[in-house]
Amino acid sequence: MYAYDKYDHAIVSARVAEFRDQVERRLSGALSEEEFRPLRLMNGLYLQLHAYMLRVAIPYGTLNSVQMKRLAHIARRYDKGYAHFTTRQNVQYNWPKLVEAPDILQELAEVEMHAIQTSGNCIRNTTTDQFAGATNEELEDPRPYAELIRQWSSFHPEFAFLPRKFKIAITAADKDRAAIRWHDIGLVLKQDAASNLGFEVVVGGGMGRTPVIGKTIRDFLPKDDLLSYLEAILRVYNAAGRRDNKYKARIKILVEETGVDIFTKQVEDEWTRTRNDGIDFPAEEEARIRAHFTPPPLEVLPAWSDLETISAKDPKFSSWLRNNTDSHKVSGHRIVTISLKPHGGIPGDATADQMDLVAELADSYSQSEIRVSHEQNLILPHVAERDLPALYKILNEAGLGTPNAGLLTDIIACPGLDYCALANARSIPITQAITNRFNDIQRLEDIGELKIKISGCINSCGHHHAGHIGILGVDRKGEELFQIMLGGSGDADASKGILLGRGFPADQIVGAIETVVGVYMDAREEGELFLHAVRRLGTQPFKEALYGNA
Amino acid sequence: MAKKIKGPQIILANRLDDGRAVFFTPKQNWSYQASDAWLAIDEAAQQQAMEAAMKSDADNTVIGIEFIGASDSENGPVPTHAKHIIQNTGPTVRLDLGYQAEGAGA
Amino acid sequence: METLSLSGIVPQRIDRIEEGSNIAEGQAVLLSATDLTDFDPAVLSSAGSIGLMVNGGDDFGALPQDLEQFSLINIHFNAFTDGRGFTLARRIRRDAGFKGELRASGPLMPDQTQYLARTGFDSLVLEDTCRKADFQTSLTRFALFYQSAQDGSVPVTKLRHPVSDVRKVS
Asked: Where are the domains of chain C?
């Protein structure tokens, strides 16, 4: 994985010093709260209901065991012994003090981490496939491109005060695990007829109040032109994006209002003018970065024959093996997903002890490497098959062995009204109620792949628009109600969920989910996934079951 | 300041240095507990309370001063809205955290 | 009011002329595009030099032709959160090739001076001079940069690869 050189260290250290100075000026009154707010946000520091919240970037979802141990240390030393992994490959602390935030950033900088641009109206942490570099499904490891974008976008002088936040995601696999069509810019690595690498460029996706699936503005951008093309898009957006209404300020609205053809022409014109300005990093730099992502020296092993025997004797292990491990590009290895969705638990939360344990397991079993997924789970990307039983045993004893990856209880949820000042309703208790009800693994496996995504307000941090079942919490005269939508997807075939009807009170939502699942179970064809059944059936049968014919 | 609300109100803010939710009291200081808050019933009282709160902020210790709806109880004022009740107690999914765990709060 | 130098140049002395006021012979005056069309060309030609006042949100394509006729262009920011002025500056420098003094004004905050310098600004009108030291400190906050920019600073990619076979001009 990427390692800082002296320049990266110097830049990140300068940022820590800058923020320390800004905090001191805020405390002395030299900076007003109005001025300080965007500055602290660009360092990941929010103000929430109970305290500040610090969002730390895990660039493109990759971290090593030393970094994970430092995250655990920060949770103990500066917070309340836990941290929350988010839907954008970040990690959040819920109780830091403003006065200690610079110290936390310093501790992060020591292990080559930061909170730069994890909030604010600027270019955010670039996200990617959590299986990058381990899956056999990709053309090439996309993380070097994400690192190029990280460097280009860090403190970009022109784009620090954009109309609104700006999120970029990149995938190199056909199966899109990064939900790239839901981002301001989505990039898909491709090959042209002559086997040159390049990107399909998708612009204007986003959730929030107005969910929009991104549109392709270029089928193939040569990979060497990536940064100059991104810069052209950002320049058009920064100059013309709306600033009169924050709900219309994302690039998706600019693309819709301008028209995708005219918008594309503006970008192409800008790029034609500036593509030779030296914006793109030299080829040597891409090579230097890529060298950091050389695949780990895994021994090519034959498929481990004992695996099936052990699995046949232990149904729990068997479920975990089926659901929480994926094929690796090196024979005899698997990619392991550690579920942070224990039934009845808080999605994405991990205690400092659990984080330390995962770091130790990464050292023992996964080349010291860990990934974070946008689905709020942790991944050990390089595990030998023969190590799986021992690994599972340790994970299970630590409450990290729930075999539910990709199943109904692998729920994405925002922190909701329990923490967030923007929320209208509580997402976590709804998640807990659902996972407590659907806690039988056999039943979950029978239901199959079903992604539930829950947001506590229209800002959609819980990605409800992209859920096979999406749940949106609303506040109606002081009562929390939960609306259900069906048919959303964050995958390559991205789609927006369709709202079924009026919301349900908290104590009826589990029953409503049961009803929806029941309709699917009755109507599904052989091997038909929930999402495909919804697409075939439409929402009508579900509406009838929930609300009657009236 | 947030949009105008009706009925009895108390004043909520976050402390600048650690972000914790605090309530403005009739003693003209800030308390962790809504039950200590200055319950301003009518507009005249609300204006008086807000002026005092703003003045107390001259030393740059709190941010986001706002009125929130509240009602009176035997033990003092209680916030009306779920969000502010949670601010006065802590996350409902982590009873070991926040004021509820420290013996303060509702 | 004081004008802070961002690029090392000595800021010009120039007077903002409001509608209806007079231009003295030889006076350096700052005018908006509308003022330019309103004033008698003969009066304008008697001015010592003319600067152009624009808003950060103005459309680059709608600016007057031949920007080199102006001794200075002043981009006004309506708010420190409105970053359009950074892009406009970049375009005035890069696309129009403007070589004169590029000045920023408006309610900007100290922590933005280096961004201004890097997008091509030479100077900044300080609305509150009591924080002058903070504005100056932030001007040299970062010594290393990932991007190439209008201030001519050397990006770290060049430091990493001094003799790189640059496939594109920079």
From this structure: 2-143
